[in-house]
């Protein structure tokens, strides 16, 4: 009796090994994202071969950095079953206050210190989120809606509303600093900026934290079932503070890169793009209910959104259509995953 | 089970509770509990819902602190434990909900706690993947689960329930536990799975691990053996070897009143035929035929994969039959969805009342009238609350709910009361046939008694009842006839007044080949 039971379980366990596409997609939902991304790229490349030029690809890379950093932060919080909508406000707050600070008080400070200050500043604001979520014991959606207004309100009321057009020189220089540079066929100089490196570094760091540290496993455990995780001895307070602090740090970094890349600091920027970022993370296969998803999927989701936003125009689809396309993709992917789940 | 442990000298004291008191607000939940647990022994903590069992477990596992008293763990005295201290000392709890993290793999669920405890709960640590795998392999093989990589990497939510139960136990022993507390571990298991669990317990005891069961099922206590600890109203009313107590004595100690463990069924079924099923097939069973008279109680049992669950769902439209016929009072009927069944007067009390049956955050009143909302509402769709309340009050009365406050959320009631609310709801449509699936799963002895009495009263009133259950004493005590299913067919039909548990059990387990011929 015992033996037959074990055999049956062994059979069950062995089943996923026999390859089934449906099962594969269920286990690795980001494969759908990858497939969509490839399909779009192929379609666009066929319709307009200019897409495959290095210039376009580098544009996509450059446009992914800020959104990618945001998305990694959103993903790590989503993995723990929470949600954050205040990250754009954290980014705006950090980048604008820091620009003002550097411009008025610390003009000569090196860019490395500015970046570190952005990270620390963002992390501090994030920790406020974490403490509120933990101690109020209120869903993080509500808390971060509140803090989004709070951070942004504080920024606009007390720090300033003036659009800063001329950045401190070291920040502008960082935005222009090339990672590599070459001349395209038509003679224009194409640059992949140095700051692009931040995204792969942040992605690898996030992956490492999630997959190689106890904290990472704890984050997924909390995303699976917070009550049980706490019963098993995971310290929810530490986890909440780390999560939101980490997401805040990424947001702060994203904010300052946004300023350097655009060579201006507009306090009204960024806020309003939350849904776009959350859409990217969800398209990357992370379930909104938490506990699932991968860093790779998140990055693929970001690329998908950036590609849709920047290249549809190349094939003659009006930019107003972008939302239609993103919307249908999200519904499509969601419907697909849900039917997969039901079949289970 | 080696000879060595059998002859072991008086075993070592591991955990002792002295005069533990616990107040929750004004409620005195524990009134001076004294308990001692020795290594290598099995204990059964018995008591009705609300007697303080779960509070004591939570104190042992460090989830809550006692208001007063002393805990002596491994020779050291504490006023309260925290979860990491308790885990560090080797106290592991397998909660009724199993406390598995659904989105993590088997290996992580089993072996991550070891590393967490090793890091004293600090999370800024690398986690050791190879050690994770080794620990998981060792623990899984102890409970008889596979240890190949595919199984280790399976996400727990993809496993069947019985395997999850074993994974939860594997986690408990992965950290070299000295005391494993199991909170109602057999509630959701079939008989065969319970047998396997009992073997695992034997193995744990032979490795000098103490096991503390918290349970309602007295039959299983006797099969496992060991010491009984009986709680009532926050006090320990008996403690000693199980052999010293009869089942009846234990029941009476738990409830504080005499319990009639004899047959509940005294009535006789009526003459008219209520239900006739012919050549009924669906995924899970095929070509079934049986009939049911007015006022008859029919028991259906079998192993989990025998098709009994599918039959219950086919009769009630939850998972409709693919072929065959169902006739109610001589008229053929088609049941394609639950609404059809309800319209024809077939009620279904599902096994998983929490997921399938009740709106836990809604009040008793709202749950009771959920099926008759259209009847209670006027042309504008406004529900007549006054009439609804009157009906809900009557149903609660009939089902002997132990509260008069119909506005209490159902989630705050005990399992037995929740079940009574659910049965009461079906009475609101005045069904001709009621299909009860595991009516007393997770329900304590006292509530069982009330539920059985209610079932008998329904049959007396002429309703036909089908009880699908693997609680064999329950069927023997309540039914007129019992059908035993195996491999999708009916393999035996027994008169419940004459049959024995052994007979039923044998029919349930008879090999499939025998019946295929």
From TrEMBL, chain A:
Keywords: Cell inner membrane, Cell membrane, Membrane, Transmembrane, Transmembrane helix, Transport. Its main location: membrane. It is found in: Cell membrane. The chain crosses the membrane at residues 32-51, 63-80, 87-106, 112-137, 149-167, 187-210, 239-258, 270-288, 295-315, 321-339. It is a multi-pass membrane protein. It comes from the Bacteria. The keyword Transmembrane applies. GO terms for molecular function: transmembrane transporter activity. GO terms for cellular component: plasma membrane. This is Sugar ABC transporter permease. It comes from Metarhizobium album.
